[in-house]
Design brief:
By secondary structure, this protein is of the alpha/beta class. It has a domain of about 70 residues. It has 7 helices and 10 strands. The protein has a 6-stranded mixed β-sheet with strand order 6-7-8-3-9-10, with helices on both faces. The chain is globular and about 50 Å long. It starts with 9 loop residues before the first strand and ends in an 11-residue tail after the last strand.
């Protein structure tokens, strides 16, 4: 009996997407690309190429001017304002500057994501403690963000982004302020998240770092995405 290979399931799809900001500045033009469930993809491009804008289109931080963006099978532009919070709960977002709440300690920064979704405080903190242990911050639960190193802040941001078990994780230059070793450790954390089922799209300009990981790379060039790396050509650390 011949077993048919299961077709990949798309989690994100761009169809002829264009993005023009007020004033006429065009960032994306005729962009078509899909990302499959369970994939890990590096998004590269020179500064100003539109990497952040592309990520914003996925979580509806901005709306496409042309074409269609589908996430979880739904046209993002058709999501109503009342549906938007629930939609975004399925997406984890990590920014370069972390965006931690300065008045909350590490534990409550992470637990907050569960609290706003209706989880009681005790349960939210229990889950946050477990996750912070997993990212190596179990000894820093009650410290304030200003006392942490850049790498520690990023791990807090990652824990907060994934505590709701998002189907999709978007990371915008998460290693931009880190040295090579700290950046490598952070990417290994993303790799572990991907292994347990989270689809990861990570925007970065650090070609030296991503060359150490066996995942495909697409580059934004003149408003379109171009595949620039073969998985087999990359070095895996196993």
């Amino acid at each position: 009996m011949v077993t048919q290979r299961r077709q990949p399931i798309e989690i994100v799809r761009f169809d002829q997407v264009g993005l023009v900001y007020p004033g006429g500045h065009r960032v994306l033009h005729g962009l078509s690309q899909s990302f499959n469930v369970g994939s890990f993809t590096f998004l590269t491009g020179v500064s100003g190429a539109g990497k952040t804008s592309l990520l914003k289109l996925m979580y509806r931080g901005v709306r496409a001017t042309e074409g269609t963006v589908r996430v979880f099978g739904k046209d993002v532009n058709r999501i109503s304002s009342s549906e938007l919070p629930q939609y975004r709960q399925r997406i984890g977002i990590v920014f370069q500057d972390c965006k931690l709440f300065p008045h909350l300690n590490v534990l409550d920064n992470v637990a907050l994501a569960l609290k706003v979704s209706g989880t009681d405080v005790k349960t939210a903190r229990t889950h946050a403690k477990e996750l912070l242990q997993w990212v190596g911050l179990g000894q820093h639960l009650y410290e304030m963000p200003y006392t942490l190193s850049d790498g520690q802040k990023q791990r807090v941001a990652i824990a907060r982004a994934v505590i709701t078990r998002p189907l999709l994780l978007l990371a915008d230059e998460p290693t931009g302020n880190l040295d090579h070793e700290a950046g490598y450790r952070l990417l290994r954390l993303f790799e572990e998240l991907n292994k347990i089922g989270t689809t990861v799209i990570l925007a970065t300009h650090n070609k030296a770092l991503i060359a150490e990981f066996p995942y495909p790379e697409v580059e934004l060039h003149q408003g379109r995405l171009v595949s620039v790396a073969n998985v087999s050509a990359k070095v895996s650390h196993g």
